[in-house]
Amino acid sequence: MKTGLEKIVKLSQISLIMVLVCSGVLYAEKKENKDIIVPDTVLIDMPTAGILDYYGFLIKTRFFNDGGIVGNLNFGVMERLNLGASMNIEKFIGSDSDVKMVRPEIQVKFRFFDGGYYTPALALGYDGQGYFYDKNQKKYMEKGRGLFVVGSKEFGMPNLVFHGGLNVSDFDDNYVFGFLAMNYTLEDQVSFILEYDNFFHSGDPSRTNIGTRFYITPYFQLDLALREFGKNIVFSNGAKRKSERIVQMSYTTSF
Fold first, then answer.
1. What CATH number corresponds to the domain at position 185?
2. Statement: residue 20 has pLDDT above 60
3. Which region, left, alpha or beta, applies to residue 15 given φ > 0 means left and ψ of -120 to 50 means alpha?
4. Which of 85, 27, 22 is nearest to 58 (CA)?
5. Ramachandran region of residue 231, left (φ > 0), alpha (ψ -120 to 50) or beta?
6. What's the pLDDT tens digit per position in 220-247?
């Protein structure tokens, strides 16, 4: 059973998150140039070659199964360089008192090529945020992206963008994984996302993610997604690995 103090602390934390989100929406609605959509820097799991502008600031909150939450902060610290950090908190929402805070992870992304008529924009980065942390083994069952290179290019028709790249999740085994994605944005209001992630090595199975991104304002986005579509297997530690519903909220501003 939770104590009264624990319940008050958790309620206060949730309230603070909602206040920040609502404040962001209200602030964004007052912005000029509402027809300008902020570039997507990440889809569901996959990074893109998009980056925040210099002095840009991104807050992203991700809610997943069993009351878990991942909070992200990212900054445009230089013209082409983004730095960020994330924190995974398991069982944060709900009646379960066994709240677990996992160590913070870092994100770095540098866009080194803006692309051309025939060539994609390219970015190099690192993302340590994994999922499904096993406290006994002290590691994520789904590893973070690790070191990656990604390209993004509009192709075939307006607003249809393809993304793809390679990554090394674990420097102990040095396996190279691949990832591909596409998203189609309809009238700057909604985007449909498809990802095929983590392929090349059967020992760490690939996954398919699908989702929809709603542009509530040019600066505030709401994502509804299904990860690991059709999966029903187990991780190496015996834990169930199955399809997972997630909700993401992102707010972008500048400082």
1. 2.40.160.40
2. no
3. alpha
4. 85
5. beta
6. 999 999 998 877 778 877 777 788 899 9
Residue type, 69: I
Query: Which residue segment(s) compose the domain that 89 sits in?
Result: 4-254
Calculate the alpha carbon distances from 185 to 114, 159, 180, 196 in Å: 20, 5, 17, 18
Query: Which residues 6+ apart lie within 8 Å of 202 measured at CB?
Result: none
Alpha helices in the chain (DSSP H): 4-29
> What is the token pair recorded at 35?
């027809």
Distance CA 165, CA 184 (A): 18
Q: pLDDT band at residue 214, thresholds of 50, 70 and 90?
A: very high
Residue 24: both structure tokens together? 């962001």
Please report where in the chains the tokens 């807050």 appear, as a residue.
59
List 85's β-bridge partners, or say none: 73, 106
pLDDT digits (tens, 9 = 90+) for 111-166: 999 999 899 999 999 999 988 888 888 888 888 999 999 999 999 899 999 999 99
Report whether 52 contacts 250 (CB < 8 A): no
DSSP for 170-212 reads -TTT---EEEEEEEEEETTTEEEEEEEEEES-TTS--EEEEEE
Residue 6 scores a pLDDT above 70: no
Taking the C-alpha atoms of residue 20 and residue 59, their distance in angstroms, rounded to an integer, is: 9
Q: Are 219 and 251 in contact (CB under 8 A)?
A: yes
Task: Of 49, 87, 42, 41, give the one whose Cα is nearest residue 68.
Answer: 87
Q: How far apart, in whole angstroms, are the C-alpha atoms of residue 75 and residue 200? A: 32
The CB-side HSE value for 221 (13 A sphere, CA atoms) comes to: 31
